[in-house]
Design a protein that fits this description.
The protein is an alpha+beta fold. Mean pLDDT is 76; it is low at 13-29. Strands 1-2-3 form a three-stranded antiparallel β-sheet, covered by helices on one side. It has a single domain, classed as Beta Barrel (OB fold (Dihydrolipoamide Acetyltransferase, E2P)). The chain is 34% helix and 16% strand.
């Protein structure tokens, strides 16, 4: 009886943990929010395009796509970002 109780408690806790982890990832995917930002200027020749982060993110920022496919996060208020993005277009959404 004690073994069954322990097993049920473990299953209940595991279920609660999985539900919490699942609900967090469902609201905002980590690829749509930025938590660290590049402060050093990136050459505008290396920038391919940019996109805004999700409005559900804790901080408004931009994700810039570099030539070669790499993406990095920057703050839209940085002066070098404003200058560099004047001649760039937003990234196109991929269709499936």
């Amino acid at each position: 009886m004690k073994l069954i109780t322990v097993a049920l408690v473990c299953l209940l806790l595991a279920g609660m943990w999985l539900h919490e982890a699942d609900s967090r990832s469902m609201h905002v995917s980590s690829s749509n929010c930025c938590f660290t930002f590049v402060e050093k200027k990136i050459s505008s020749q290396r920038i391919q395009c940019y996109k805004n982060t999700s409005s559900a993110c804790s901080r408004s920022s931009l994700i810039i796509k570099l030539k070669g496919g790499r993406e990095t996060c920057v703050l839209p208020t940085a002066q070098w970002v404003k200058q560099s993005l004047k001649s760039k277009k937003p990234c196109l959404l991929k269709t499936q």
